[in-house]
Amino acid sequence: MSSALDTVQHLSSVWSRSATIFAARAQGAYLYDRDGRAFLDFTCGIGVTNTGHCHPRVVAAAQAQVATLIHGQANIVIHQPMLELVEQLLTVVPPSLDTFFFSNSGAEAVEASIKLARYATGRTNIIAFQGGFHGRTVGAMSLTASKTIYRAHYAPLMAGTHIAAYPYAYRLKMAPDDAGDFALNELKYLLTTQSAPDETAAMIIEPILGEGGYIVPPPAFLRGVREICDQHGILLIADEVQTGFGRTGKWFAQEHFDFTPDIMVMAKGIASGFPLSGIAARKELMDKWQPGSHGGTYGGNAVACAAGVATIQAIKEEQMVENAARLGPVLLGGLRDLQEEFPVIGDVRGIGLMAAVEFTARNGDPAESKHLAKDAVKDCLEDGNLLLLTCGPYDNVVRWIPPLVVTEEQVQQGLKIFRNALEKIGEVL
């Protein structure tokens, strides 16, 4: 039999790897390799396992469902797990978003939101925002502006897409409120110069940028986007794929900013790692779709829906959203303490357990800061068994995505490991 390393050579190299861990099992905040080595996982499968790895309630629900019905296609049967998932979602999403369509991945849900917006409005254009990541399928990729690597060599992409400014205050060297005003003015200018309002079906936005660098906008910006959409009859789509299901200390990040979208995109944390995504919208909006104009074979799979039900119940009953709200300031406070000690940290930002550190080289060039962030992540893994990821256009941002079941002791352990990595970087600067 071939060794695992030999077999890996048969996997496509298109998967970039931040680590090479042969995972044997996982539980809570930890991954374990085949030698029993424990890794403190502050990546959560890129914000997926919000309930921690293999939460007992989710495992039990999936196991029970596998024994009764694995797949019942939504055009043919109505299965109980999907109905129960709808009932659970209705308790956590904004009350006006009362109708759901389910898919498998975030990109599929984004595609569904675009189709619904165009179908419902009869308009063609979609406006996305600089730094946003919405997926890798053609429509979603056309709206993605977080890195060129996601789009390069795939042109031509979907027509009718336009990219507006996002208030990345640190990059713009502005105060947050000033950056918000700048971005709103640029959005109005775009509607005057590129995409006429009566041709614009929707705007799609991450309430907090994910892959684009964990950028938190000023609240007035998102409320301003909502007002502009209302003024022109443009639908507003909130991409809550990475920010949803308790990640920011609220069920959804939009709650921090006091706005409600017309369509909300959900995935990642919805089912603790089972492939499930969805969109939520008002019934009168969803009813504008002609039956059969959208669909999918696996969307709303019975096992995934059962896992989704158990996920929401576990988050509620174990007060994971409250834990994220409580420990977020602990994590961000610890990172800001490190920022005062290590000048290589240019910015610390985030909400709840969605936190980031932006590395900044002495000359201020973010492109030259990439190796600093990568070295920090590598040192944390090799010297401290801590899993972290980078993000941002230049990959010079280290993001912290611990599970919502993380303890304060584990947060402090992660900060200590990160501090050791920063000391090591400082020795070679």
Top-tier CATH class of the largest domain: Alpha Beta
User: Distance between the terminal alpha carbons, to the nearest Å?
Assistant: 46 Å
Count of helix runs: 14
Helical content band = 25-40%
Q: Uncertain regions: pLDDT < 50 for 5+ in a row?
A: none
SSE order in H/E notation?
HEEEHHHEHEHEHHEHEEEHHHEEHEEEH
Strand content: 15-25%
Biggest sheet: strand arrangement? 4-10-9-8-7-5-6
* Biggest sheet architecture: 7 strands, mixed
Number of domains: 2
Q: If you consult CATH, what is the topology of the largest domain?
A: Aspartate Aminotransferase, domain 2
DSSP, total strands: 15
Under CATH, the homologous superfamily of the largest domain reads Type I PLP-dependent aspartate aminotransferase-like (Major domain)
List the helices and strands and how they pair.
Layout: H1 4-8, E1 23-27, E2 30-33, E3 38-41, H2 44-47, H3 56-66, H4 80-89, E4 99-103, H5 106-121, E5 125-129, H6 138-142, E6 161-164, H7 169-172, H8 176-193, E7 200-205, H9 219-232, E8 235-239, E9 263-266, E10 277-281, H10 283-286, H11 302-317, H12 320-341, E11 345-351, E12 354-359, H13 370-384, E13 386-387, E14 389-391, E15 397-400, H14 408-428
Parallel strand pairs: 3-13, 5-6, 5-7, 7-8, 8-9
Antiparallel strand pairs: 1-2, 2-3, 4-10, 9-10, 11-12, 12-15, 14-15
Helix pairs in contact: 3-11, 4-11, 8-9, 12-14, 13-14
Describe the structure.
The protein has 429 residues and is of the alpha/beta class. The chain folds into two domains: 4-54 and 319-428, Aspartate Aminotransferase, domain 1; 56-317, Aspartate Aminotransferase, domain 2 (3-Layer(aba) Sandwich). Helix content is 38%, strand content 16%. The chain is built from 14 helices and 15 strands. Strands 4-10-9-8-7-5-6 form a seven-stranded mixed sheet, with helices on both faces. A four-stranded mixed sheet has the order 1-2-3-13. The chain is globular and about 60 Å long. The N and C termini lie far apart (46 Å). The relative contact order is 0.16. The model has no long low-confidence stretch (mean pLDDT 96).
